[in-house]
Design a protein that fits this description.
heterotrimer; A mainly alpha; B mainly alpha; C mainly alpha; C: mainly alpha; 25 helices
Chain lengths: ~325, ~220, ~675
Amino acid sequence: MTAYSIGIEILQILILLLAAPAFTGWVRTVKCRMQGRTYAGICQPYRNIVKLFAKEVILAENASWIFRSTPYIVFGVTVLIGAIIPFISVDLPFAATADVIALVMLFAIIRFFTALAGMDIGTAFGGMGSSREMTISSLAEPAMLMAVFTVSLAVNSTSLTHMVNVIGHGEFILRPSLAFAVLAFIMVHLAETGRVPVDNPATHLELTMVHEAMILEYSGRHLALIEWAGMMKLFLFSVLGLSIFCPWGIAASGDPAGLFVALLLLTLKLAVLGVVVVLIETGLAKMRFFRLTEFLGVAFLLATLGMLSFFILE
Amino acid sequence: MSMSFAAQVNSVMAALILLTSFGLLVQRRILGLIHLFAWQGLFLCISTAIVGYITGMHHLFISSLMTLSFKVILLPYILYILVRKLDIRRESETLVNIPRTMMIGIALVIFSYHLTAPVTQLSTMVTKSTLAVALATVMLGLLMMVTRRHAVTQIIGFLAMENGLFFAATSATYGMPMVVELGVALDLLIAAFIFGIFFFHISTTFDSLDVEQMAKLKEED
Amino acid sequence: MCIMKVIVMNSFDIAILSVFLMLSPVLVSPCCARYRNLNITLSFSLTAAAAFAAVVAGILSVHTGITTSAVLQMGLPDLPFHLRLDPLAGFFLCVIGLLALFVSIYSIGYVKGFAANRSVVRFVIFYSLFIVGMLLVVLADDAFFFLVAWELMASSSYFLVMYEDEKKENRRAAYLYLVVAHVGALAILLSFGVMAGLSDGFESFQGYTFDSMRATHYPVGWATAAFFLAFFGFAAKAGVIPLHIWLPEAHPVAPSNVSALMSGVMLKTSIYGIVRITFDFLKDYPWWWGGIVLALGLTSAVLGVLYALMQHDLKRLLAYHSVENIGIILIGLGLSMIFTAYHFPALAALAMMAALYHTLNHAMFKGLLFMGAGAVLHATDERNMEEMGGLIHRMPWTACLFLIGCVSIAALPPFNGFVSEWLTFQAFLLTPALHRPILGLLIPIGAALLALTGALAAACFVKAFGVTFLGHWRGHSSLQKVHEVDWHMRSGMLLAALTCFLLGIFPTVVIRWMDVLTERLVGGSIGTASGSFDWLRLSPIAPERASYSGFSVFIALLFVVLVAWFFLHVKKTTVRRVPIWDCGFEKINARMQYTATSFSMPIRRIFGFIFQIREETLAVEPVRHPAYPEKLQYRLRVRDRFRYWLYEPINAGAYYVARKVGLLQQGRIQVYLIYSFVTIIVLLVFL
């Protein structure tokens, strides 16, 4: 635990806090361009969050302490996850706190408390959002785990720093198992971060809401924390995928000069990933809820194929 | 291109062939099926070319070219014309629902891997690991024929089986004798024409290409 | 050396002391039968003290790793009772004692309210006998004593389940429980018979001690028979699918503290039995035993949680979850058996550690959840979740502690459920080391099923907590009499919750304590296999392989939350309370909320093919126009398929055979005399 590594840790958390809204802004900008609308700029999410922090909190009469503490818990867990995933350098002292499986369960905490907050007020919207969110997650988790499992077979570990080291700094081998796993991961990414075709992030219509339904009653600084945490979650899922499947550029251990290259490449990779996400969102329509079994079933299938092709072909 | 890199690319092609076989199982729209079949043929032809490059057997290049012309260009084109003429627009329905089909597919892949494991251990060839994929492709083609109700999709399943067989030949024995390959290709072409004729007959008799309708031929009281 | 001797004497003696203390209420309680409150307080304090002694004995015995035996001159002549306290028994003593301690404290408050018009003495006597039975099962060192203690445990729990015997369904549930328990006991008896017979010959009686069973080397065929008989018997008691049918009937009708004990520790005695017989007696076995255990464990886990999701009775939901968690423990045991069969002791140790840790965890959080359910039942007189809601405002402590139980069972960091599930996943990920590709292909699909189970369990507990405690009160009765429970019940739950938390953030301490167990049972241990094994981080195999630190997660989370809260409350902030927004919809009422049934609807649709579901919606008369229904009646029936595939046919078959045999009973004296006459003639001919 040198001063350098603690510095990297702090730098990573700062990047997470400050750059996550920019990533969301980028995705929304590209989407607007693609749909032929005028856009509000990459900085609009920042303005939204600042505005929300300044507003008053309006709480329903029967909101309990769970409703009031969920924004803080969700925010805290998201920042904690950001401290664990190595996306600019391998030298991350906190990364040993949790491996990929623990990371998946940390995301599950966010989901659990948001679902409870949805049920707390006692409206039909909240219940519906919670019910659908838990169902989607129960279908997505096996797929996510199989994808993680496939990668861990290839690198013989579930620790993220080790994965980055082996894939990023080891020799370059074409692995079809990883190709399948990355396809499965993209599908799970869409499901977990609530993008089309699983959930429409820009809507307030009850038929198309999952995540929005659970946070419908929040306002003021609570809503600011939750929105910010949502943007950070999109950012974190994206960098998780990049760190596992495309880690070239992440600075090796004890290599300060590599940090600039790492930052540059990270920006580039995220920009490309944003465009890919928008292409998928614009090209597909939101699926009917009960078609999601097929969608996530295909994700599970791809991940299993990846694992099978590891044994068969490698 | 080094030898080991070429072998890796061959593995990637094998994986993509497996992916397209699953895609054929899952895809509902008929035009999508035809496109997937064309992609499968393309991956097959690239794989054959690579194996030809690695082993230095030049007749495999000729097989690869034949695969390209027949399975990537000619057969999909024939099927496309058929679909246009018969005015098929609906999705094809399945007998078993899609997640269950996928589970059975995975079980078949595991089974074919288990079956070819002894061969893989003893073989000294470059392509030893792709034999399991080839066998799996044959089985998945058969599964597709079993679980679909539309006649055109059953034909595509049959053709996918033949793809798998060809891939098995390439993996196990570095290709079949030229005469056999030419004969098989000619058979396929004739089969495609005959299928076309029969489709028109079935369509006019039953007013649909749903093979469940043929159950009317049972003649029970 | 002398100090060591003192400690050795102490742990076994403490265990015996705890057994005697636990028996004392049987004598004390009838004496103060007139003074109810004094009776309750005194008896349960005695059981709590006894449980505490058991915990101390268990901790000491595992810590020192020393085995002590004794022979009691009770029992039949020539067949005395043998007792033995070794680390495995000590671990289970600790589990039983810990939960019994918390439940006894809880019971002081609970029984006061619960046994309002009934006999307390009866309850106390059977309660102590039940726990004594469990303690003796774990301490027994021969087949005879084991079965006596097993029977004591089963019978006293039968009487406890049937405590409220005025209701017919309680009697029926208790009867079903008794039948299944005895079928299981019969199988265990047969298994012991096989093992005892083979160890010392079928003529002598001395083979019945566990020592002689341990020393024998069994031929594969007989070992398989003994294993599967024992497994069948213990699985019936543990509630493994398809022998689980009694569990969701018996656990809900029992008083809640008894349900907590049954679910928390009685099922664990079956696990103790399986571990003892497989790893201690039958040491050499083929891999497919482990495969079958793994498959059954996976089935129980997935089906258990799916059945739990369909329930709207809070205690039945918790009972089905016990089926799921027993499945997870069996998954760990199965993996351990497979690894042992292929001679990988370090990996087997990891899997076994996962299973044993989950045993401890489950006892804690399931006990906590049942105690919470008992508190809710006590306060509202309702077991049906569809009639509850909004209890968090009336019962804040219970809600908070129940939430801790829910978070633990959903396997979320930094609580304890996560640690055992993480260890199980790590054990799954080690299967490629087996170099058997077929196993390497099939077992990871088991890992995906375990992930599915975990996610479904989280969904189930969001439903259970959300529908019971959050939202508005859905019931028809008034909310006035609902109040928070007294401090005895709260302390019992608080202690259990605290243990869950501590087990979650200090797993390395517990695992280091338990390492001696895996060393004895499978010959490997986690501690020596890993590189860095400091108190902070758990790295079971090697740090670059995987690591988890519960303590750091907790501290970091606390830090970030406090910093965020501080930054946002630097200025004075206010919160305005207003009516619910609900997108501007005004006429909201409590019936518009999601109920338990509606919450699980998507999952019911997706996984419905597993159950027999019948759903119908009828318009209630009068119907003015079919297009505008005013009142609808919705009926949903979800049935367990196993009832119709397995139990009804066996039931019908048993009745058929009984009827045929009943023809022998003619009622006339002449017929019976003819029977005797024929028997005498046959005996004279053949002898």
